[in-house]
Amino acid sequence: VSRNVSRKIKSSITGTRAPPRHRHRTRQQNPGPMATAGEDSAAELLLRAAALVPLERYALAALLLASAFLYRFLELHVLGDLLRGLRGGRVALTYHPDSQVYHRVAAKCRSLHGRYLATPWLASPHLQTLFLGIWGRPPSVTYRRQLYTVRDGGTIALDWLLASDSEDGSSCDGTISSDDSTPIVVVVPGLTSDSTAAYVKHLVFSMASNGWNVVVGNHRGLGGISITSDCFYNGGWTEDIREVVNYLHQKYPEAPLFTVGTSLGANILVKYLGEEGGSTPVAGAASICSPWDLLVTSRFISRKLVQRCYDKALAIGLKGYAKLHQPVLSRLANWEAITSSRSTREFDHHATCVVAKYETVDTFYRKCSCANYIGNVSVPLLCISALDDPLCTREAIPWDECRANKNIVLATTPNGGHLGFFQGLTAGRLWWVEPVSEFFSALHDSPCMHRQKTQEHGLQSPLESSIDKGPYVNLMEDGMVAAVTNEDTNIHESLDKHKQIVSEMEGSDGRVNVQQNGITSVSQDESHSAVKNTSGTEDNEPSAQGPVGSQEQREELSTDKIRDAIAPVKKSINQLIRSQGRSVWWLAYIAVVTSWPLLGTLGFFLYRKKFRNSSPAKRLLRG
User: b/e map of 173-188 (b: 16 or more CB within 10 Å)?
Assistant: First the structure.
């Protein structure tokens, strides 16, 4: 159209005639070979124009695309730090409004009310985690090793770093006196980690520099120690930390005990604190980068590509741990299946569930997750987690449970990775070590430090529900009825003694040999001869009365023995009634109410004939 208009304008100006329309239409409808050649030449011209662009421009564009991809893939936050003016992210605290642990302890920790800025060239959770595992820049630490044997025959390596060891030029024999009041910090490492891990050395060196004695409780089979029993550690195995804590408390009763758990060790520690409740001798604790819920964490690390890389790396570490103890583990589980595991879940299926006797992997994860025990923690506990943790997802953090417990303070940071938290241009420090040190120091100087509760009748499970303390009725073999409580052991012992006395009295030889509290009394024949001699010397009684008097004394002696044996039973039952009296009456009331309709119906059917023949019944029927 534009060409036709231009031609008309030119023709009007020059006076020439415009070409006919049909020719132009024919030329458009039937393009010739020259038009095809023009189209090909346009494509060739485009390629020639693209070839004229310098290669540096293409390299720059590829670099920008790769940078954007890596920025997203590695979860870098350099731009975010620059936009915040390199001030870092604020530490968010979650706690109960009436928590004395927060108001008297955590409120004095300066680092918990500040900000955390990651090392600029490690501004990524993945970079921090990898740098910690590969290098970490740990301080120089020399441990003193102590081997401890647990009850099942297993061996645990306890690596000590005393406060005197960190002082320059100090001379110490490496021992602690039993009356030493210097606080002791027990460190529980993470999965396949021991005292040689970089983050453990950072923590140990910092606490020892502050004047505290530190001991690292290595897991079974780690730290260069062989497996000496058929028990292996796992994410829910709390027996080792329980025995180590009790051993240290008994050996150093004047020294307050503090515990720190990292990664999987944090799950073990929090689970132990929840199981023990107020009966643990631990004065304070800290949980760093805990997985909280093992089932949620297991699904998280198998979700994305980068998390699956971590999962495979952890599986390789677990298989390396299994190879160290192949003679024992191959006897307990399928060794070929263990070596072919490509993920932590497969390893737990073939090894952990078989050795620890769990039905399924999900059952193992559910039962061993420390999130189930948060509500029963009675020890001041500081929990630190990073929201960008590539292993322990924020989805597993029990926010409401931590807020409901007055003994827990949860601190979360936007960045930090898994146990990384590097800070400074040289990445020479771990940020989480400072708040742990401040929290323990403030707790040690405050009245909020936990004190172990003493129990008169032995240890009792803190997770035992109130229904377990009710007076369940137990029918004994001799027909006696007793309530089953924590004191049932004393009752059973007394009843056994009573049955022993009765059975011996009914013997054919007529001899009674009573053993009570380790003291053996004389037999009945000896007492009879003694009574006979005394009766013969006093007042010269007739010989005819001798057998009668001896028989009466024999009955009185047996009655006294039976009374003495039953006395502890009566005492225990009286104590039980006094302590559980209200529960007994409630049980009787419930029994009457629930059985009354059945008994009323049964009585009506049994006595319906008498009821019909009675005069009131006849009057009622007539009316």
Answer: eeebeeeeebbbbbbb
For 23-60, how does the pLDDT look when each residue is reduced to its tens digit (9 = 90+)? 444 444 555 444 444 456 888 888 888 888 899 999 99
Q: Pairing state of beta strands 92-94 and 408-413?
A: antiparallel
Which residues face 286 on adjacent strands? 260, 382
CA dist., res. 598 & res. 595, Å (int): 5
Q: Who contacts 351 (Cβ-Cβ below 8 Å, separation ≥6)?
A: 232, 318, 322, 329, 333, 338, 341
pLDDT beneath 50, residues of the chain: 5, 13, 18, 22-28, 32-38, 169, 171, 456-495, 497-549, 579, 617, 620
CB under 8 Å to 272, separation ≥6 — which residues? 238, 241, 242, 245, 280
Q: Where are the domains of the chain?
A: 91-292+380-445, 294-368
Longest distance between any two alpha carbons in the chain, whole Å = 180
Q: Which CATH superfamily is domain 91-292+380-445 in?
A: Alpha/Beta hydrolase fold, catalytic domain (3.40.50.1820)
In the chain, the amino acid numbered 58 is Y
* Model confidence pTM above 0.70: no
Question: Using alpha carbons only, what angle is made at residue 447 by residues 444 and 453, rounded to the nearest 5 degrees?
Answer: 95
pLDDT at 281: 97
> What strand order describes the sheet that includes 282-288?
92-94, 408-413, 381-386, 282-288, 257-262, 184-188, 213-217, 155-161, 144-149
